[in-house]
Amino acid sequence: MVPPGAPAQPFVDALTEPVQAQADTTGFVVLHRWMEILKRHFPPQLPEPSHTAK
Predict the structure, then answer these.
(1) How confident is the model at residue 54 (pLDDT cuts 50, 70, 90)?
(2) Is a pLDDT exceeding 80 seen at residue 24?
(3) What are the extents of the domains in the chain?
(4) What is the distance of C-alpha 1 from the center of its chain?
(5) 3-state DSSP helix/strand/coil % of the chain, to nearest 5
(6) Distance of alpha carbon 9 from alpha carbon 15, whole angstroms
C-alpha cells in the first residue's frame, strides 16, 4: 500500500480506477473509458501563452 501523499499516489490512483472499472463490467474496459480515466488523472498541460521557446 502506498501512503497518502506519496509521489507515486497519482499513478496508483490512475491504475486502480481502470482495474475497478474492469471489475464493474464484463471484464473489458473500452478504449474511450480508458481515455476518460487517464485524462482525469493526467490532464493535458496546455502551453502558457507567455512562455516562448528561445
Answers:
(1) low
(2) yes
(3) 12-41
(4) 18
(5) 50, 0, 50
(6) 10
